[in-house]
Amino acid sequence: MHVKNPRIPLAAAAAALVAVLALLLAPTPLRSRVQATALDPATTTPAGTAPATTTPAGSPPRPTTPGGTTTDPGNTAADPGSTVADPGRTGDDARLPGATEPGTLPPVVDHGPRTGGKVALTFDADMTDAMRRQLHGPNPPSYANLAIVELLERQRVPATFFLTGKWVREYPELTRRLAANPRFELANHTYGHAAFTSDCYHLTPLPRREMTADVARTFDVIAPYGGRQTRYFRFPGLCHDRTALAELAPLGLTVVDGDVVSGDPFAKYWQPIVRAVLSQVRPGSVIILHVTEANAPMTDEALPHILAGLAERGLEPAPLSEVLGDPARVAPRS
Ligand SMILES: [Zn+2]
């Protein structure tokens, strides 16, 4: 496991203390709505001015019980060691892949061991307010690439999906379908795809005081779907600094960047995506792709070629937790 930021217990403990204090003293309620009005290049065309007041499509998900791989949130006693000031985290979460000791600076991971032949296909499901306006406007695009999901299902390919909370609320049925697949893992990509640093592409920065609650809330939105839950988290645009990491320390998670950037957002052709992936990929790689269709319209066309190229190289897609290795090694629990 390649960890970029070694744990720094003292600083992390201090950060955790600050975070806990911040939570206690926060002037805004923890569950306050996140204002993520990031503009996406792809959503700027029809100048979405009408801020459609929509009722989110997300009816409360019915808990799924996919074949034998779930952590059932109901069947374990709460872990007394991780209950205090752990927003978005229960005792069960400590056993999920990617779980780390709350209060420690989250490790940042790019890839797994360079031995063996496993690689992780990861798909981000972005959803900003601008995208939501498009969805509820006159000619709604699709931000859910079903062709990708169907191909993975058909060929029984494992994958890991980094979901934003707002995407889950727009696509509850598809989320249910992802959760029900024993080869798919679910991970966290923030609530509304806002930036966690001041300068992150075109994304609107999230105020520091809202960072912890934003990510905690997203775990809360994804958790009821069951399936292969994790404590993996990816920053929008991969943008993070020490401040952002410190804000997430109370949540006990692992930050996953990735070492193979496919460049699939807003691609016009599938060939460059395939070339980018196959030229960078190595054993242990974490490949970053998008399942957002309208904002990554060539990914489903690239995917069959990527899968064929991986097979030619003797590389086998696996769930992220398997590629990264024993999650206990990310942060040994005492
Ligand atoms: Zn993203």
UniProtKB/TrEMBL annotation:
Ranges where the record places region Disordered: 38-114
Transmembrane segment boundaries: none
Classification via Pfam families: Polysacc_deac_1 (PF01522)
PANTHER family, per the entry: GLYCOSYL TRANSFERASE-RELATED, SECRETED PROTEIN
Domain NodB homology positions: 117-318
Residue spans of biased composition, Low complexity class: 38-57, 65-80
SUPFAM superfamilies the record matches: Glycoside hydrolase/deacetylase
Protein name: Peptidoglycan/xylan/chitin deacetylase, PgdA/CDA1 family
GO molecular function, one term: hydrolase activity, acting on carbon-nitrogen (but not peptide) bonds
GO biological process: carbohydrate metabolic process
